Amino acid sequence: MRFRSWRFTAFIAMAVIASALVLASQTVRAQAPNGAKRLAFVIGNGAYTAIPPLQNALNDATATRSVLQEAGFEVVPATDATLSDLRGALDRFIQRVREAGRGTTALVYYAGHAVQLDGTNYLLPVDLRPQRSADIPAQALSLSDILRRLDGTGAVSKIVVLDACRNNPFATAELSRGLALQLVDGAQDGIRSEAGLARIDSGSGTFVAFSTSPGATAADGAGANSPFTTAFLREIREPGLPVEQLFRRIRLSVHDATGGQQIPWDTSSLITDFAFFQSPAAAAGTAPPTAPATAQTPSLTLRPTAASLRAMAPAAAYRAAIAWDRRDLYRATLEAHPDDERALRLHRTLALRTEETAWAETVRAGDAESFRLFARLYPGSQHVAEALRLAPGAPSRNRVQTAAICPVCPALAPRSRRADYTPRAEAPARVAPARSAPPPRPAPPSAAPAPAGGVEPLPPALLPGKPRWTGFYVGGSVGGADQRSPTVIQGVGPRDSVATSIAAGNVASRLSPSGSNAVFTGQIGFNYQLGPMVLGAETDFSAMHTGGRKASTVNPFGVEVTTQAQTELFTLGTVRARAGIAFGDLLVFATGGYAYGHLGQRGAIAPVPTNNPTYAGSNPQMTSGWALGGGLEYAMGPMLSVKLDYLHYDLGTQRLVLGETAGFFTDEYATMRAKTRGDMVRMGLNIGF
């Protein structure tokens, strides 16, 4: 009995010890090698219903979850998650990170569909069913919200890895092709980050990695995993490899696997060293050995310089630029090897990165002037439609941060950031100066502190920013005109009584010659916009031949008399004021002012038989009057607009005297009075400058 009791007691003791060992091992696995807590939120969405599903998203998330657990991460998973599932899993993850306390490393990995809208990245749940782009924010999870919530947890290192934007389901819709540039704070870097811009999404201690360049798409992959995750799973196991160097390796690997079509991108403001697996050398307190640079594998620890790029072979310089993925290195490589066969690819990569950087800063600024400036600087960008759509509803700041949006930003004082350091074991020893330097002079109390990022603030604008409708313009129009000239014949009669004279009452008293023809117009003008009101002036000159001839025959007392009246307008010019209201790119305007033209007037009274005297007259003259009109003008681009307008002109009344053409009597016989007026409809283009 005692023997059985002893065996039972030993069994219970062994079970308790085994349970303790299991719990201890689990605790150790959730701890980093240095004792800090590691937590990860791993999302894999592939079973989409309203948009094309993804084959490899779940495979990528499952494989990443396993390797992160090997690296000591406690993982909160979310697979094929709806929006409510994503939000619930995110809440649990944030709560665990907050409970873990300061010093925690928090990682978010996402494999699935993602898009950007108005400069914000959205992770798409499997139950997404958008009808238009405006539905995306309410049906998706914003990356900016995830980063802001991580900032509030106190985690010392925040790492976000996005293997997203695969075979974008909205590539033919109004959404942009790829994810937007994600900006993080570079306050602890020493120099500005890749974008060189201020913080909008997260604080320091953040590392964000995209599977492809901003604005581009990533491949889902033909194998079990995407090209990005395949490289990530292979390179992550390198002991002691800093995370920045890890993703430089991944960038080269994905570039090679996709033939240069996909180039991953990352931005870092980490303030501590981080490696997924710790090496024995690092545990002993020495820096891990680094692989020497070769023609095919550039150095991932020593940042290349313009001089070193010139000394490299073109192929090595190209790979070094891709590995470090910085705009200044792209430019230095192009300057060093402009005739290399890979230069065109570098040009395209640099152009895309510059455009996306400018778009990210434009969205950060958020004012109407910045959106309009972006549309003028990058007229071929995929973001132009977004910029022009957001500009009317954005607030106006009356000035534009041109220095922040310009493609080539001003240089700052050279400093270093931790991600670019030479390994500590290779750092040269510091030499003490011969004598101590004098202390720096304190800044005057009234000096304003420099803003974050090192860019000096612009002085206040002297004049308001130029609105779309302000400025000079020239243009041309074509259309048609219809003219009417009601004419009254007033008989006067000869001073001497002659048997063959015709009484004034024996001719037609009223005629109305009219006619239509084409009009060709050139115009020049100036507008100035005050809010929605647009005021300006315009002068134009039209070439035309409009008008007509009218004849009437009467037969009083057996004598047939034919009366003819003719009025033709050959040119018309106007000088008018304009006033209108702008509805974004559409301007509705009214005009009015002075009109003048070259007019030809003819008249005749011819009796039959011809032995009776004939009376005729002609009078080419310049005449003037007034004009009123209005129309619509639509802005097709920053400097081009199409215009449709209507104009009514009235050149007043013209007097024509008819005299005898043969015989002895030359006294005036009759007077014709014609009132000339007409209408014009024209369509044309205006070019602003």
Largest beta-sheet characterization:
11 strands, antiparallel
Mean pLDDT: 76
Which consecutive residue ranges, at least 5 long each, have pLDDT under 50? 20-33, 183-201, 282-287, 399-437, 442-466, 496-501
Name the structural class. Answer: alpha+beta
User: How many H/I helices?
Assistant: 15
Radius of gyration: 41 Å
Spatial separation of the terminal alpha carbons: 107 Å
| Shape call | elongated
Walk me through this protein's architecture.
With 689 residues, this protein is α+β, with helices and mostly antiparallel strands. The protein contains 15 helices and 20 strands. It has helices at 2-29, 57-70, 83-100, 136-139, 143-151, 227-235, 243-257, 280-283, 306-311, 314-324, 327-336, 343-365, 368-377, 384-390, 402-405; strands spanning 38-44, 74-79, 105-111, 114-117, 120-123, 141-142, 157-163, 206-210, 265-268, 471-484, 487-491, 510-511, 514-530, 533-554, 560-583, 586-608, 615-618, 621-635, 640-660, 668-688. Strands 10, 11, 12, 13, 14, 15, 16, 17, 18, 19 and 20 form an eleven-stranded antiparallel β-sheet that branches. A six-stranded mixed β-sheet has the order 2-1-3-7-8-9, sandwiched between helices. Strands 4-5-6 form a three-stranded antiparallel β-sheet. Helix 13 (368-377) runs antiparallel to helix 14. The longest helix has 28 residues, at 2-29. The N and C termini lie far apart (107 Å). Mean pLDDT is 76; it is low at 20-33, 183-201, 282-287, 399-437, 442-466 and 496-501.
